[in-house]
Design goal:
The complex is a heterodimer of chains A (about 160) and B (about 150). Chain A is α+β, with helices and mostly antiparallel strands and about 160 residues long. Chain A has four helices and seven strands. Chain A has helices at about 1-25, 35-40, 70-80, 90-110, and strands at about 30, 45-55, 60-70, 115, 120-130, 140-145, 150-159. In chain A, strand 6 (about 140-145) and strand 7 form a beta hairpin. In chain A, helix 3 crosses helix 4. Chain B has a single domain (about 5-155), classed as CheC-like (Chemotaxis protein chec). Chain B is about 30% helix and about 40% strand. In chain B, strands 1, 2, 3, 4, 5, 6, 7, 8 and 9 form a nine-stranded antiparallel beta sheet that branches. In chain B, helix 1 (about 5-20) crosses helix 3 and helix 2 packs across helix 3. The chains are: A alpha+beta (about 160), B alpha+beta (about 150). The interface between A and B is large, with 37 and 45 residues. Strand 5 (about 120-130) of chain A pairs antiparallel with strand 7 of chain B, so a sheet runs across the interface.
Chain lengths: ~160, ~150
């Protein structure tokens, strides 16, 4: 399971990097310090996009993208090629699309596991806490210049 | 979404609460449909569905009701927002999803890992092409909650 988790982390990070580069012309960097998302935007409204990957080989993966609304708005503006003034349906749909593309690309890099994907779900809220029931969540802090900080959470568990 | 997809979730919810928590929830209103942005309660548990359908089941309720439900599930009093609450709530949603998936005849449905969220002023979003079907439920003397399902055939 440890090797699988390492492979997943690498493939998800590569897929996120490729997705942001291709779809938004944005560069992605790992954060060297512990990630405090609230530091990047003084707004307590968070967007959490969740997608599940189910392997035919009896294990489950949860991919969670968490980011402040300001970061999501700026990323969506790059995605759509037009300014986004506020948190709206376009921003939510863009974040759904990002996790869907990242999960699809990561699963394509691991074809031996025969992943199927769930529908992405997006929640918005203040002071949100996201818990990975049944397994711990590995949190990967990331940074996108001109947009801000975001975080990818990954959990792997036997089904 | 076809109506025959919904009954398994209602039956699974009743059975899970009766078996695991010792209470029997009942329907507390008509089914609803939600798309666009809509508010949820403070506690939200989600399990993704994959396989021959793509979707998700969600259970949302006020924090105080969640503490009662998980307390009954675990057999101990829950007063904080802690790992017991989050894990217990996720497990209840997972059991409901698993039971409903087994009742969905004609489909092979796989469950993803449950995720539990808490926060203030939480909102969700549903697409008009795959709206959330809302099943309002109530537990006598405890309070109201909703089960919500979105699904599309692959």
């Amino acid at each position: 399971m440890a090797q699988l988790t390492r492979d997943l982390v690498n493939h998800v990070l590569d897929s996120t990097d490729e997705t942001l580069d291709t779809m938004m012309d944005l560069k992605l960097y790992r954060c060297p310090s512990p990630n405090d998302l609230a530091m990047s935007d003084n707004q307590p409204l968070f967007i959490t996009a969740i997608i599940g990957l189910v392997s035919k080989h009896d294990f489950l993966v949860r991919l969670v993208l968490t980011l402040p609304d300001g970061v999501a708005i700026r990323m969506t503006a790059s995605f759509l090629g037009e300014p986004q003034g506020e948190l709206n349906a376009d921003v939510i749909d863009a974040m759904k699309e990002v996790v869907n593309i990242v999960a699809g690309a990561a699963s394509a890099k691991m074809p031996e596991h025969l992943f199927s994907l769930t529908l992405p779900v997006v929640l918005i809220g203040q002071n949100t806490t996201c818990a990975g029931a049944r397994s711990d969540m590995l949190s990967i802090p990331l940074f996108v210049p001109d947009c801000g900080r975001l975080r990818i959470g990954l959990s792997v568990n036997d089904s | 979404m076809k109506s025959e997809y919904i009954n398994p979730f209602i039956d699974a919810t009743r059975e899970t609460y009766e078996t695991m928590c010792g209470v029997i929830p009942t329907r507390s209103g008509k089914l609803g449909m939600r798309s666009g942005m809509f508010a949820t309660d403070e506690l939200v548990g989600i399990v993704g569905l994959s396989g021959q359908v793509r979707g998700a089941i969600l259970m949302t309720m006020p924090l105080s009701l969640g503490q009662k439900v998980v307390g009954a599930f675990l057999g101990e009093e829950i007063t904080d927002v802690d790992n017991d609450l989050m894990d217990g709530f996720g497990e209840i949603v997972n059991i409901i999803a698993g039971s409903a998936a087994a009742k969905l005849s004609g489909f092979k449905v796989n469950l993803a890992l449950p995720t539990v969220m808490t926060g203030k002023d939480q909102k969700m979003n549903g697409k008009s092409s795959a709206p959330w079907v809302v099943i309002p439920m109530t537990i006598a003397d405890w309070g109201k909650f909703t089960i919500e399902v979105t699904m599309e055939e692959v």
